[in-house]
Design a protein that fits this description.
Largest sheet: 7 strands, mixed
Strand order of the largest sheet: 1-2-3-4-5-7-6
Length: 392
């Protein structure tokens, strides 16, 4: 068996379609494995590097991986990893990923600050592969995507040497972020000790905001770039909004990316900070759920944006992942937290995670329990006491 790593060409598209279908069937959610036109564009784009492994003896493609590149923000993403079932024990995926990260994108003059990926939790194999190549475990996304059922994903990232040492310090954190930041500190072997702020529960507003939802890729994208001319304001790597939720009073425009296939909906940006409509967003989240974003919603927030994080916590968002040194501004690297909200019941059946991700899962479940079950228990006890008192 003679294997070589090579760049994909447009002539490979038909064979790549067959490779993804033979591995994932018809349930693969990404167009890079199902849409011929998109695959051709990605192969020829300077913003992607599509690697394949060829068995030169049989003249077939046996592995594929795509590196999506955001040159402006110096960040990359590994997607579309697939290996032919008969070649699974040949380190094919590992060798392609290692070549892309070590020899191409995280070294040299035109390099990135970091590259991230997500892996499924139906097996630990992909998680172990990325960990072996130097990726760090950063968190989990509960019920983030739907293939045959809703699945939890893991988040990992690999950093250019010296990038983590340029992290901008943050002085305070909300109390509920303490567990996940302790996990990050243990992984990075650092001792950040910010001041811990007590939980703040804001009173609901007298009036909810009413929203109109526009789902139109080209129109929303145009409005998005007209509204946010500064690249830092629209920072959400590899997510271009296709949905606009506009409040009827003209105050709030919220841009999101909605996937109809797996009900996935990241909130990408808003024309006002998240704390501005504090206590008035529940109706929008209900509307998005009715619209189809019924499994998972997330947003990226700087760790030093305390006000927005507190508002998101009040709207039942929980910290599920952290991404240190994610965004570079004036040569300083800023940490982000992924705040997520799932409307699906937890389903751990068949989940397999490497032990490095266990602390992230535990802190998430504990926070979810505090938010939903502990408060329910208090209400039940209070109700029982009240009934007993009336009985006298």
């Amino acid at each position: 068996m003679s294997l070589i790593i090579d760049r994909a060409t447009k002539e490979d598209v038909n064979e790549l379609l067959s490779l993804y279908f033979s591995t994932y069937g018809a349930s693969y959610p990404l167009p890079l494995g199902t849409d011929r036109g998109i695959m051709s564009k990605m192969i020829s784009s300077d913003d992607n590097m599509w690697l394949v492994t060829r068995d030169t003896e049989k003249n077939i493609i046996v592995g594929s991986v795509v590196f999506e590149i955001d040159w402006l923000n110096k960040i990359g993403k590994v997607v579309g990893v697939v290996v032919h079932p008969q070649y699974r024990r040949s380190d094919i995926a590992y060798n392609m990923i290692s070549q892309g990260t070590n020899k191409k994108f995280l070294s040299g003059d035109r390099s990135l600050n970091s590259i991230y990926t997500t892996t499924r939790t139906v097996s630990v194999g992909p998680q172990l592969m990325f960990l072996k190549d130097g990726f760090l475990p950063l968190g989990i996304f509960q019920n983030a995507h739907k293939l045959k059922q809703y699945e939890t994903l893991t988040l990992l990232a690999k950093f250019k040497p010296g990038v983590l040492e340029r992290r901008a310090p943050f002085q305070t954190i909300p109390e509920k972020l303490t567990p996940i930041l302790q996990v990050m500190n243990d992984i990075l072997e650092i001792k950040d000790r910010p001041e811990i702020l007590g939980s703040k529960r804001r009173e609901p507003a007298d009036e909810e905001l009413e929203f109109e939802i526009i789902f139109a890729h080209n129109y929303v994208k145009k409005r998005f770039y007209e509204t946010f001319t500064d690249s830092d304001e629209r920072f959400y790597p590899f997510h271009i909004p296709n949905l606009l939720a506009a409040s009827t009073n003209g105050e709030v425009d919220l841009y999101a990316y909605f996937s109809k296939v797996d009900r996935y909906c990241p909130l990408v940006a808003a024309n006002v900070p998240f704390y501005t409509p504090s206590g008035r967003m529940a109706g929008l989240l209900d509307q998005l759920e009715d619209y189809g974003a019924e499994s998972y919603t997330e947003t990226l927030t700087k760790l030093n944006d305390i006000a927005s994080i507190e508002v998101l916590l009040n709207e039942d968002f929980l910290p599920s992942a952290v991404y240190p040194a994610m965004l570079e501004i004036d040569e300083k690297m800023y940490d982000f937290v992924v705040m997520s909200r799932t409307m699906e019941p937890f389903n751990f059946k068949g989940m397999k995670i490497e032990r490095a991700f266990k602390p992230y899962l535990e802190q998430y479940v504990n926070l979810w329990k505090q938010m939903h079950l502990d408060s329910l228990e208090v209400l039940m006890i209070w109700g029982q006491n009240k009934v007993g008192f009336l009985g006298y």
